[in-house]
Predict the 3D structure of the following.
Amino acid sequence: MLQKRIDDQPLISREMMREAEQILHSHLKRVGLKHTAQRDTILRTFLETREHLSMDELHRLVKRKDPRIGFTTVYRTLKLLAECGLASEVAFHDGIARFEHQYNRRSHHHMVCTDCGGSVEFFSPEVERLEQEIGRKHHYVTTRHTFQIYGLCESCRKKASGSRPPV
Amino acid sequence: MLQKRIDDQPLISREMMREAEQILHSHLKRVGLKHTAQRDTILRTFLETREHLSMDELHRLVKRKDPRIGFTTVYRTLKLLAECGLASEVAFHDGIARFEHQYNRRSHHHMVCTDCGGSVEFFSPEVERLEQEIGRKHHYVTTRHTFQIYGLCESCRKKASGSRPPV
DNA sequence: GGCCAAGTTGAAAATGACTTTCAAAATGCC
DNA sequence: GGCATTTTGAAAGTCATTTTCAACTTGGCC
């Protein structure tokens, strides 16, 4: 429990938060949009999270700070954050779009448990290399890729083997 | 034109088609379902395609052979084909599910052009190896993965550089 | 500090890709 | 052929997103 709590503390320092706000604000200025309290609240809430959130989950967190902020605004702000590189979409292939913040983070991928929905992050520079290599081979200029692994995590596997004997 | 035509001929021989029908029929029998003309028509149409089709695209092709077959039946049959391993889903991350037939085909991945939507297949045994390796490391029993690369194909890049000078 | 054009907000409606429902029709075991 | 069981397809339902629109803010300007 205590461990959990420590682990839940914000990932991001005050300076990083400020820097991210700067990035958003200059993006807004660049494209002629306005600076609003809602957008700041949403950015902060988003940066305080770890892992990946659906729009709905983020909206729920945002409402704790300001109950009057609507889903639509969270939706639009998340798109904005993605535009300026502060957020990026991860598709877990279950019909729900998830976002994670790209602030100060190494490129990584996810392995998802198809039973409990849990996931682990992993880092694999080989995947980046493959992207480049395959793009070159087929004359594509590559911009990004998706890579997810699906399977059963250890605890779901143990749960499952309770009902029938292990192979 | 002639080249195109030759390239458009069915991928699959009569024997392979028959074999696939056998697979479907025994699957139907196994799970207590019935053999219908619609299911056969849909399977055949599907096997005659290359690349990946959305449900809607397959439905359109199926209607050419029998205009009375509805979208719902195509939808349900595609699920059935996926169940018995004749079809598998590919997610291109644009909100549309696509399927390709797994008949007599090496495991492969796709690189998608974000401008024209075209795609190329590529083969990369390294990705399979990575799946195993990463699963083992985190105590997952992996079942599958997704890997797609996104970028600009050569011709879209040339099109784009027409309006502004190349870098 | 107040004005106002332009942008923002959020509730509600629309979209679109599936997914389910249901009554009529087809299948296949006897 | 008889009949329980499945299948079919049109239509309705879901559900995550996306758009609409009228009321509200923001920021540049005086």
